[in-house]
Amino acid sequence: MQREGGSLAGSIPTLILKGPGVRPLTKGHLWVYSGAVNRVVGRAKAGQVVRLADGAKKFLAWAWYSPDSRIRARILSRRPEEEFKDGWWAGRLDRARAGRRVLEEDPETEAFRLCNSEADGLPGLTIDIYGRAAVVQAMTPGAEEIKKGVALWLKERMGVEPVLERDDGQSRRLEGLPRSGGLLLGTEPKEPLTILEGGMKFQVDLVEGQKTGWYLDQRVNRGLAAAFAGGKHVLDCFSYSGGFSARALAAGARSSTLVDSSARALRGAKANLELNGLADRASLVQGNVFEILRQYRDAGRRFGLIILDPPKLAPTRAQASKAGRAYKDINLLALKLLEPQGVLATFSCSAGVEPAFFQEIVHWAALDAGVGLQILARLSQPEDHPILLGMPETEYLKGLICRPL
Ligand code: SAH
Predict the structure, then answer these.
(1) Residue range of the domain that includes 42
(2) Is 9 inside any structural domain?
(3) Is the CB of 262 under 6 A from ligand 1?
(4) Which end of the chain has fewer CB atoms at under 10 Å, N or C?
């Protein structure tokens, strides 16, 4: 059979890139912006696998085509001999799954991310497993093309059903895709599902909950923060449905105060604390963390472990400096609320705030609070949310566990 990689012959359309457009690709990045494309040879459809070539028509890579997006193509492979027959993506899912075998076999944890988009070789496709159910997000035309097949794969290969779809509200629009959601396969669960994480029970609402129902990316960090909770009064800021608090209380915290602006999130927290027999040591506070921290400061309250896990304050690098002020604000307030020997577990999930910048922000907060600060641990994303070297935006979650000196 004629291999098509090296030549421009055959039915696969080709994007000819401009000279400078080729440069990011040599650095391991996977995105080709619209401005880098010189012309398209052949009729390319959204979500189709296309060939990328340089001005001299030399093969560069295979990519998923996205004609309505600023990110015009996303690289799938740099191997010219790779073939993209029907169902080619199943091999990538098999590999992603093999990389999570320890998690899949862990009797204490039933929820994890099976496929993490670019970092698992399928740009725009995320799959979260929740026990026997899964939630798929298809955020590129390429992922959209394969999502029904992926749902079938989940059922046939992993016995997972139902498979739901969630729209993240942003990405699909930027890719020119219509809003989407609902059921890809099976029947919709009638009630929130209960999953195990670290041996504890949590209710997750796959249909209405935030993200795909649970902040899977904080699973490991919840356990790490809980290790500092013994005997402490905990302040769990941006608590969502109580993941950090439940783990901290189970690890021996004396109390936990959960603060979140969402009533629904706190209803979930109440249910989760009750499910684990921990509700008697918890208080739920609905409000704005930025204000509540000030109130607690003015009231002279103190805590032994403070968790700060705010939502994405800077989705892109352009918003990083404004977000920097907000991060500094809450970190400064939290440091003022810490008991001597208290511990702060502080996070940022903004891709636009790089780890070194985040550490600098926390340093500014410490300077303003007039304390020296020890870093006890630097935290990141768990292994089911891998980071792709060459694509800094895949590293989004960072945390510091620190203690005033
Ligand atoms: N710590 C959680 C995840 C936090 S996500 C976990 O481990 O599961 C961020 C949370 O912050 C969301 O639940 C959202 O409702 C809440 N939130 C966003 N802005 C807020 C604000 N200004 N004050 C209080 N909560 C806020």
Answers:
(1) 14-77
(2) no
(3) yes
(4) N
